[in-house]
Amino acid sequence: MTAIQDKFEELVKRLDESDQAGGPDKIAKQHQAGKMTARERLLELLDDGSFEEFDKFVCHRCTDFGMAGNQIPGEGVVTGFGRINGRGVYVFAQDFTVFGGSLSFTHAQKICKVMDLAYRNGFPLIGINDSGGARIQEGVESLGGYGEVFYRNVRASGVIPQISVVMGPCAGGAVYSPAVTDFIFMTEKTSYMFITGPQVIKEVTSEIIDPESLGGAKVHGKVSGVCHFHFPSEKMTLEKVRGLLSFLPNSNREKPPVVPTDDPPDRLVPELDAIIPENSRKPYDMKKLIVPVLDDQHFFEVHEHYARNLITGFGRLNGKTVGIVANQPMWMAGCLDTEASVKCARFVRFCDAFNIPLWTLLDVPGYLPGTQQEHGGIIKHGAKILYAYAEATVPKVTLITRKAYGGAYVVMSSKHLRADINLAFPSAEIAVMGPEGAIQILFRKEISSAEDPKSRRSELIEDYISKFASPYRAAQLGFVDQVIFPKDTRKTLIVAFEQLENKVEEKPHRRHGNIPL
Predict the structure, then answer these.
(1) Are residues 166 and 283 in the same domain?
(2) Which residues are catalytic?
(3) Torsions phi, psi of 397, nearest 5?
């Protein structure tokens, strides 16, 4: 065997050693827990044969606590470049079979390298988290590693899409990296996120709780809102990551990809003419209005299980991505509350950062009243919506389907916050408040002194509805650009967004605004 062949053999041996990670026993244990290994996840996520791995031979430099003799190539994280549906992405996946996926300084350096490459080259970054946290043996060095990752998360925010996929433990300071990214995916029953774990909580507060109840996927998907998507299996989770990416541009330098469709742009949707109930107090499912309008009736909902009185998600119109925000009359009558306000503002700002036009649908009777909301900061949180819409410079098209009352009408992408095109159905009711409340305030004395108070109240309500609770007063003032038949929604929206394709709006010169956090 020649000297060069010996070197080839050594390379094969080292590559195999790195691929084995924590060894067969730990890989088997990972599988028994219902979890893939780091490399298996990346191969499932990326197009076949597209993954190019970096830094397979990196090892930690720690010499304390017997670590000098405990070296595993790769250092507990797999990093590299690959493709999803032919488009480039930078990736990292923490490997729980190596030191429990704990983060050392060199582990962090590997992650930072792909973050820097993604930032400089304008490609999305996808991180798969499965880690026991900071490497205790390294002390402040591992904490410094987290700081380096956090800094880059913030620097890349609004520049490239950042997606976090939590597929195991993510605890302590480790949770802040996903929290800064744009979207968080979790897998049910095998992933969890929390600042302090069950044992610490028990010691400090005497409260007994298990990891799933404290920070599992469903808890963060429905209660805290930390998680945007959660699915029952790792395979489905990774498939949905691919689905989300199909709607997004590579970076803020580009527009989202255009996907060819056979769905005609002038297709009518006749069933929408009957979707708004005759009784304005009767709810209807706003998704049944959104879905039929989109290309191939495909709607990719974001934050589906959180703040369900507001809908957010992505769809396409004539092949082009739009971000969709809509009140949901099926939940809390579509009222805005603190949770819906934060959900809305965050989504709008993401779309604006990445050149995604916004389609907003209104059926909102107002902000949710009550001491819980007021004490919970509805003033501050509600203001986030108006800030996000007023700040957004992407094309904005608004459709008022029914109720558009008071301040909630103003903040939800009204003409007054510089929406570009505002549409309304004939069923739209645009007013300071609902007719019953308005009449009670305006004509309380007249109603009480009338011979037939009930009849007089009904007359006044009908008069108010005809004058104010309709789209025509707003249309006369130019606050509504078109009143359309519901069946024409799809073709009208497509034409509207085509008109706005070359929109340019200058922002004021400033370091940044001060959104009410």
Answers:
(1) no
(2) 172-173, 407-408
(3) -120, 130
